[in-house]
Design a protein that fits this description.
Structural class: alpha+beta
Helix content: 25-40%
Shape: elongated
Oligomer: single chain
Number of domains: 2
Length: 175
Amino acid sequence: MSSSMYAVFQNGELLLWPLTSPPCDCEDETSAEVIVEDMPVYDRHLYKMTITQPYLVGGGWKAHYEQAALTELEVAMQIEGLYNGVRDRAQQILDQFAMTREYDNCAQCIGYFHSSNPYRKAEAEYMNQMRDAYWDGLMSFVTGVKLGQIAMPSSVAEVIATLPVLQWPIERPSL
């Protein structure tokens, strides 16, 4: 399967490429349809795809995709994007979990760490342990990816699945 793109040539030299629709006809310029092979499947965490310059084959213009390794900067940017996405989602999960016990967020729950109420104190201690476990797990995962010990995950959900399941250790009596 292939798709079409368009190129504009001026005096036999490539002027504009790639275009997704035919350009207007202009003086001294020639537009041509270019048949482009479908993009092959590739690991987007390790490689990027670029489209070649059009080339003439049997009277028609063609182009194809070429795979190239990501640069160190591109890999670092992917890891940073992963970290930011997971960090935000992990904090959201911790906050939502705290809300199940009527706290506004994780930090407010942990604020009861020295409470004289034994239930709130226990909840604060547990939330503090889980927050540490989440952040330690997240940092360990990201470090593993940076060092090449762990493959780059394909989604934030894949990383979140490696973190502890949150479940209150005690039942709170009706207050």
